[in-house]
Specification:
The longest helix has 19 residues. The chain has 180 residues and is α/β, with parallel strands linked by helices. It has eight helices and five strands, in the order αβαβαβαββαααα.
């Protein structure tokens, strides 16, 4: 079923509902377009991607109701579903709000950036440049994180490690050129 794009207000409504309807504590990490619309570098997103860790009890029932009531796409997807998790990603995740006993955070922007580089869609690259422009990521730190996960890429057979390395280098060069 096709649903409407979501803006920042709809994402906030979703967060409020999930927090209030969950029956216990947990953390929900906002990913991709959800981060983009809340921070403001994009007006809307097609999907609101979430990672639950630890999963708040009752959240799946709340998601099902909210998707219908708010007419929005909600998916469980995070960078570590597609690329190796970055070391200490949870410590770098940025707190957004607490509703009920559920904390909402932006998933680590370096993990988001590397997943966007690997996927390589035009919108992903625009998001990457916006994250850099807003000082959410730094090119040298991004390269250090890529280097940290590079040995683990063998566990992700869909990823061509050499190609991912080259895309990361090109993205870093683009960020550095834009900063000049």
């Amino acid at each position: 079923m096709s649903r409407e794009p979501s803006n920042a207000e709809k994402v906030r409504q979703l967060m409020r509902r999930l927090g209030e309807e969950a029956t216990g504590s947990g953390r929900i990490y906002l990913v991709g377009g959800a981060s983009a619309v809340l921070i403001g570098w994009r007006a809307t997103t097609v999907d609101v991607d979430l990672k639950l860790a630890p999963e708040p009890p009752g959240v799946f029932e709340a998601i099902a109701r909210a998707k219908t009531d708010l007419n929005m796409n909600v998916e469980l997807a995070a960078p570590d579903d597609f690329i190796p998790a970055l070391p200490d990603w949870q410590a770098r995740s940025v707190f957004v709000a607490r509703f009920g006993s559920v904390d909402f955070l932006h998933y680590d922007f370096y993990g988001q950036a590397l997943a966007k580089i690997e996927r390589g869609h035009e919108l992903d690259l625009q998001d990457l440049m916006a994250m850099h422009r807003l000082d959410l990521i730094e090119p040298d730190v991004l390269l250090r994180f890529f280097t940290a996960i590079e040995p683990s890429l063998v566990r992700y057979p869909a990823i061509d490690a050499g190609c991912f390395h080259d895309k990361t280098q090109r993205a870093i060069e683009s960020m550095e050129a834009a900063a000049r």
